[in-house]
Amino acid sequence: MEMSSGTVISCRIQGKLKTRGERATNPIAVGDYVLLQKQDEEKTGLITDRLERRNSMVRKSVNLSKETHVVAANLDRAFLIATVAQPATSTGFMDRFLVTAQAYQVPVTIVFNKVDVCPEGSPERDQLEYLEGVYHTAGIPTLRTSATTGEGLDELTRELAAAGVNLLSGHSGVGKSTLINALLPGVDLRTGEVSDAHQKGKHTTTFAEMFPLPTGGFIIDTPGIKGFGLVHLERDHLHHYFPEIFDKLDGCKFHNCLHRNEPHCAVKKAVEAGEIAEERYLNYIELYETFESNSYR
Ligand SMILES: Nc1nc2c(ncn2[C@@H]2O[C@H](COP(=O)(O)OP(=O)(O)OP(=O)(O)O)[C@@H](O)[C@H]2O)c(=O)[nH]1
Ligand SMILES: [Mg+2]
Ligand SMILES: [Zn+2]
User: Fold this and answer.
1) How far is 239 from 267, CA to CA, in rounded Å?
2) CATH 3.40.50.300: does it fit domain 56-221?
3) In what helix (H) or strand (E) does residue 73 lie, and over which residues does it extend?
4) Which of 188, 191, 205, 225 for a ligand 1 pocket mutation test, highest count of atoms within 8 Å of Cβ?
5) What is the CATH number of domain 235-289?
6) For atom 22 of ligand 1, which residue has the closest CA?
7) How far is the CA of 188 from the centre of ligand 2 (A)?
8) Hey, do 56-221 and 235-289 end up sharing a CATH topology, with the first three levels equal?
9) What is the pLDDT of residues 149-198, one digit of tens each?
10) Best substitution site from 178, 180, 195, 219 to test ligand 1's pocket, by max atoms within 8 Å of Cβ?
11) pTM higher than 0.70
């Protein structure tokens, strides 16, 4: 726990906080403000209360479990780190992250890292440009970076300086810790190879950690996540969290249109006209249809 004075001490969490309210696997998350009692001549502390959160990113911890995992709290911006290859990030995963961020009012920038493995003319480059098109049509800002070559790191630094508390999240192996090492000389986080056989990361980072930025503000490294299960959301409100879909609702014949099989649906017309990316629309339909059984991944 970092104190307002800047010193860091290790803390225990008072038992009553663990049982309060919802069943989160972590009652205190990175980014929380807490009250604590100092103990052992101020060498350790006991966390006695958590202040109300301004916002948070919450996901279902594992499939079909009722438990939630608070990824981080009190965020000014989330950077969703995605990669086209080694490993590949699916738009299904990205859209679940984006739906949660939209519902909890956390602005997101997508960072496509490892662009060095997407050379001009390669299928990876085509996929990168395709994904950029999908998310630009949805109004979501994107960046390209390579922690290896340094491409895009100046721009990322500027974006990080513009917000206060910045979260880095994404699958294991996409390069979150490597990016932080490249941005912050002096920080030396452990990083891990992506396995050749499965093209998956090895979950090298095991706990979330916040670092001060030289430009002011903070950056949070988090463990890679496999799935982003939705929690506390209502199925019939899902379309509110796809901003470009929600924008069209006024044009639908039925004010409660869910844009599935209803006649005179402005959303379906916009998909046909290319104003809404089909990929996003299909992910919305898939999320809707698998909502009960599968609010995970
Ligand atoms: N080619 C290439 N490799 C990269 C880049 N960024 C990171 N890597 C490599 O990707 C692997 C995984 O990087 P990490 O930083 O450990 O990934 P992470 O997202 O922190 O993974 P977890 O901690 O497991 O969630 C390492 O072998 C890095 O060297 C990049 O821009 N280009
Ligand atoms: Mg890591
Ligand atoms: Zn509609």
Assistant:
1) 10
2) yes
3) strand 68-73
4) 191
5) 1.10.40.50
6) 172
7) 11
8) no
9) 999 999 999 999 988 999 999 999 999 999 999 999 999 999 999 988 88
10) 178
11) yes
